[in-house]
Task: structure prediction
Amino acid sequence: MILGIESSCDESAIAVVNRNGRIKGEWVHSQITKHAEYGGVVPDLAVGEHLQNFFPLLDVIRTEVPIPDGLDSIAVTCGPGLAGCLGVGITLAKTLSLRWDIPVRGVNHLRGHAYSPFMQLDNLNECEKSDFFPHLGLLVSGGNTLLFEIHEDLSISLLAKTVDDAVGECLDKGAKLLGMAYPGAPELEKYAMSGDPKAFDFPRFLSKKNDLRFSFSGLKTSLLYRLKKMSDSEVANRFADLCSSYQEAAFDQLVKTTEKVMTGQRYRSLGLSGGVANNQKIRDDLAKICQKREVLFLPAQRKHTGDNASMIAYAALLDPKGVWANDSQQLTFNPNLKITDLPN
Ligand code: AMP
Ligand code: MG
Result:
């Protein structure tokens, strides 16, 4: 079994996953309420929270899974993320590795998200690979918007990324302009459900097929100007329409770009991961384009869309190119890792 440890941002998470990819136990402690009053994640506060939370989390695990019995390795997020936060997880991983005399390995957090849609399968290594690959992946979170291809050997090629805000950031910033507390995207989704997505014509950035990228900062600015032109009562009366149209413009860009990439390619499955993958509308929109093209739609399970440690252990298990450090002293963090970067 592999012990996974995740601490890249504002979730402290630990999981135990066996060699078939089955989750034996997983625990996440979210700090979201601590950061909400500041309107975003405060790095120093997050470090202190991780320091407080990991030992109780370890105690909880040990009441349910008798570690270190049966553990043969530790996988820990080594980037990208907040440096201080990554440091807490890595120090814990190295200490446990020395204490228990088992190897430790750094895992790229983005690759954890990228492979997370496959965690719901029984055991990917025993599946018919051609049922799933080549796979197109869309990672949508508070810090990233990435479209990438996963090949049959599980290597990853990046196809498009955002040139400014991430889609989750765009939704959160829009929600903030509409008076919602951080992170407002889930609340925005609730209002959007009863609104008309076509009521307001917000701009959609669409890139060319030979120069694929996402951009969301213009959308947020256009909401700002729209709101400036409206009276308070107008905003109140058309609140659901504003939410719905804003969310629609953001998702329209994701869906159209994904569709553009699917055209003429023989992808067997489409994955959706990251915190924004919680949203039912984006799940429905992508399910539709997959159905039309007879491509298997594989959104990550909701419990694994946000940051979690199961995906870190799972990525360590899947990615054949990752390196287990014999000398745990070598392991350090890289806050700027890209999805195509190894380790893992
Ligand atoms: P992550 O960066 O993966 O931890 O995900 C956090 C991001 O996902 C934040 O921007 C959240 O606002 C966003 N998010 C969470 N739930 C939803 C939802 N239901 N709809 C849209 N965005 C969401
Ligand atoms: Mg994440």
The mean pLDDT is 94. The beta strands are 2-6, 11-17, 23-30, 73-79, 104-108, 135-140, 145-150, 156-161, 269-273, 296-299.
